[in-house]
Every structure is written in structure tokens, then in C-alpha cells.
Specification:
Layout: E1 6-11, H1 15-26, H2 28-35, E2 39-45, E3 61-63, H3 66-71, E4 77-80, H4 86-97, E5 102-104, H5 107-124, E6 128-129, H6 140-145, E7 153-159, H7 162-174, H8 178-187, H9 196-199, H10 202-216, H11 235-243, E8 246-257, E9 260-271, E10 283-290, E11 294-301, H12 305-329, E12 356-366, H13 371-381, E13 386-391, E14 398-405, E15 408-409, H14 410-421, E16 431-435
Parallel strand pairs: 1-2, 1-4, 2-3, 4-5, 5-6, 9-16
Antiparallel strand pairs: 7-8, 7-10, 8-9, 10-11, 12-14, 12-15, 12-16, 13-14
């Protein structure tokens, strides 16, 4: 006797939602085998119910109220792919309160409300999964929740945004300026019409919040990670990186140090020998280092309709199998089915001011005697010493001076840069990018 279908309520049927519906249809037999029985899409909530879509929704009830889907009696599992914050939050809360498992790809929701929702899921004994919210099809949350659940991670470094990685790769490879590379990303579908969340680093910071909670087993409040984006990056910066043996990436960085947990998001020079340096275009990667496991790299497409839909489908199959197994055994789902709730220890955070880092500094200066001495004097006064220097020949009375510093406190470097910017001979705002070579 075949088991009854598990009925799915879907919130949002945009690019990822349509991809999921397509995978459920085209892989029906494989999905049924993997899930231990059939899955059936019963309800959808979308903002425009009358809009024509490119997927078959025959027999599916379509409405515009997410909470009504979460409340429906013919929904056994809720999948949230609508994005945003307030609307999905209300629906996800309602589903969990009813004991309905939830799967989401919403990084903003999980960054801002993850601990609350995970606690609710545990209290109700149901699953809350969100693999697709970080790195799409890259199974990084699964790895941290299962194989590395008891590992003590000392370092996590991620390239977590395909838009910014594509832009930086294009600038490096083709010598295009920032706006040209952004236009290319839009043309190829790697950038949204409004890419500000990506370019500002906010998207990466939300993903780092989720990763850091898992990897370091500590509370990381939403919005607490110091964040800088790639706006203003210039081709000269990428050429200088090449000259000194580096590439430029937007990184999410988390490391355990004796002084505390260092979490930050910003562009960085990384050595070309690093595995992360070879991660290009729309690809993402997460590098992990643990006390027992050593070093590892998880790599793959971190965005896109089908990679993200595949990650959602993986969570759906896991939830369906667990639900059917528990029903067959007459047992409630284990509390661990909300995998983001490992035992968390308070951990001191290291302020960005106190992080010690090397820095790349590029200055455009006027052709006059004593300029270099003035620059090095400001650096020395702040306790920052020069490791390498390169000067372009003077053209029309101006020259470009590039410096790499030794390691110094971040605040001291910023103070030195501000003092240098105030020199009359400095013709443009200095460009500074941190170096990460741990």
C-alpha cells in the first residue's frame, strides 16, 4: 500500500519557486523514492495570483495570503520562497505553532529571527531547515549541523555572493571598470535590478551571521557584523593586487582568536596560492578549519534558480523522510530536527578597531619634494610600518604610490589613512583594502 501524499504549501513562485515546481514535476519518480512516498503541491501564495506562469499548477489552490497557506488543513509542509521579512515571518511562525515543518531560503528572515524560530521549532518538535539560504546548493549548513556538529572551528572564510564575485572576476580578467562589470552581471542575470544588498556587503553579512552561529556555536545578533562592500573598487586596485601576488575578493571572515571572535565582511587581498583565490564568477565557496578536521573547502554555485531549488528540494526530502519515519514508528520528531539549535556558549567578540591586519594603500599625490616622507611620518605616528612600496612615474604632475603595510591595529591604520588624506599634496581620497593571509 502506497503512503498518502505529503501536501506542500508554497509561499512564492518566482524564479526559485518555479524552479522547485519544475524539479518536482520532472523528477517525480526519483523524488517519491527519495522521500519515501509521494509529495503533492496543494497550495501557493503569490503576490499576483492571476499572473501566468511557466510551470504547471493544475489542481493547485492559488491565493495571495501566506498566513492562510500556513493555516490550511491540506498543508503538511510549508516552503517559504517569497523573500522579504514581515509577511514570511508571520506565516512561518504560524506554521511552526501548528506543528508544521518549515523549509526556507530566506537568509534575511533567518538572520533576523532565526534563533526565535529555531526555538519555536524545537518546542513544537518540528523541522526548520534553510540550507538554500547560504550558498544555495553548497551543503555547508548540513556539514556544520551533522559531520562537524561537535568540531571546534577556528576559521571560516567565505565567498558568499555571486554578484560581487562575478563583478570582481570580470574587472580582473577583462580590465573593465566597476560600472561596466556591473552591467555585464545584469545582462547575464547575475545581478538584480537593484543590486544594493549585494554590492554593500549586506547579503554576505546575513549569510555570515547564519554560518557563524553554526561554526562557532555562539549567538551572533543580526546586523552585528562590521560590513563593507565593493562599491568604488577600481581596476587599478585589481592590477596592484596582481603585482603583489594577490587577488581581490569580497570575504566573510570568522576566526577564533585569543582576544575573542573576529567577525567581519569586507573586500580583501588574498594570496593567489589560496584555494579561495581560484573561486571566480558566480561561484561561491566556504573554507573551514577545525581542530580535528583540519582544512576543507566547500565549493559550488551559490545562486541561481536551479541550484537554489535543488537545495530546497534536498531539505524537503529530508523533512518528508523524517516525518514518515516518525509516523511509522509512532514517535514524535526529535528536537534535533531543528538543526540550528546546538548548545551555544557565550563568546567574546573582538571589535574591528582591535583586529590586527595588513593593508594595501594607494595614493595619488602631487609632484613635490618631501611627499613620501610626510606619508611615512603619518603612518609611523600611528604605529603602522611599510612592508612594500611601488611608485608609478609622475604624469602631468601626479604620481601613484602603492604601499603594503605590516600588520597593525585596524583603528590605527584608519587613523593613519585619515591623516594622510588631509595632506595638501594628496590629490584624491586614499584607497585602502585589507589583506587577509591567515
Amino acid at each position: 500500500m502506497h503512503p498518502s501524499p505529503l501536501r506542500i504549501g508554497l509561499l512564492g513562485c518566482g524564479v526559485v519557486g518555479s524552479g522547485l515546481v519544475g524539479l518536482l514535476g520532472s523528477r517525480e519518480r526519483a523524488v517519491t523514492d527519495a522521500a519515501g512516498g509521494p509529495l503533492r503541491l496543494s497550495r501557493i501564495a503569490v503576490r499576483h495570483p492571476s499572473k501566468q506562469r511557466d510551470v504547471d499548477l493544475t489542481g493547485v489552490a492559488i491565493g495571495d495570503d501566506p498566513v492562510a497557506v500556513a493555516d490550511a488543513e491540506d498543508v503538511d509542509i510549508l516552503i517559504e520562497l517569497m523573500g522579504g521579512l514581515e509577511e514570511p515571518l508571520a506565516a512561518v511562525r504560524r506554521a511552526l505553532e501548528r506543528g508544521i515543518p518549515v523549509i526556507t531560503a530566506n537568509k534575511h528572515l533567518m538572520s533576523a529571527h532565526g534563533p526565535e524560530l529555531e526555538a519555536l521549532a524545537v518546542a513544537k518538535g518540528v523541522a526548520l531547515r534553510h540550507e538554500a539560504s547560504v550558498g544555495a546548493v553548497i551543503p555547508v549548513l548540513q556539514s556544520l549541523d551533522q559531520g562537524l556538529r561537535t568540531e571546534r572551528c577556528s576559521l571560516l572564510v567565505g565567498i558568499l555572493n555571486g554578484t560581487t564575485n562575478f563583478i570582481l572576476s570580470t574587472m580582473e580578467r577583462e580590465g573593465r571598470d566597476f560600472s561596466e562589470a556591473l552591467d555585464a552581471a545584469r545582462t547575464l542575470g547575475f545581478a538584480e535590478a537593484d543590486p544594493s544588498l549585494d554590492l554593500s556587503g549586506a547579503d554576505t553579512a546575513q549569510k555570515m551571521t547564519l554560518l557563524a552561529r553554526r561554526a562557532f556555536r555562539t549567538d551572533v545578533p543580526h546586523g552585528s557584523i562590521p560590513t563593507e562592500g565593493i562599491v568604488g573598487m577600481e581596476p587599478e586596485d585589481l592590477r596592484d593586487a596582481e603585482r603583489f601576488g594577490y587577488v581581490v575578493k569580497l570575504l566573510g571572515i570568522g576566526q577564533r582568536l585569543p582576544e575573542g571572535l573576529d567577525l567581519r565582511v569586507h573586500p580583501a587581498f588574498i594570496p593567489k596560492r589560496y584555494l579561495l583565490a581560484a573561486v571566480r564568477d558566480e561561484y561561491n565557496a566556504v573554507y573551514l578549519r577545525g581542530d580535528a578536521a583540519g582544512s576543507m573547502l566547500l565549493y559550488g554555485k551559490g545562486a541561481g534558480a536551479l541550484p537554489t531549488a535543488q537545495a530546497v528540494l534536498g531539505d524537503l526530502i529530508a523533512v518528508a523522510r523524517e516525518r514518515r519515519l516518525c509516523a511509522a514508528n509512532g514517535t514524535p520528531p526529535p528536537a534535533a530536527s531543528a538543526p540550528g539549535m546546538p548548545h551555544r556558549e557565550p563568546e567574546a567578540r573582538l571589535a574591528l578597531d582591535d583586529v590586527r591586519t595588513k593593508v594595501y594603500l594607494r595614493l595619488t599625490v602631487q609632484d613635490q619634494a618631501g611627499v613620501l616622507a610626510q606619508i611615512t611620518q603619518r603612518l609611523g605616528a600611528a604605529g603602522v610600518s611599510v612592508a612594500q612600496m611601488f611608485q608609478e612615474p609622475f604624469v602631468r604632475g601626479e604620481a601613484s604610490i602603492t604601499l603594503l603595510t605590516h600588520e597593525a591595529r585596524d583603528r590605527d591604520v584608519r587613523d593613519a589613512v585619515a591623516a594622510i588624506a588631509a595632506l595638501p599634496a594628496v590629490r584624491r581620497a586614499p584607497r585602502s583594502i585589507r589583506i587577509f593571509d591567515r
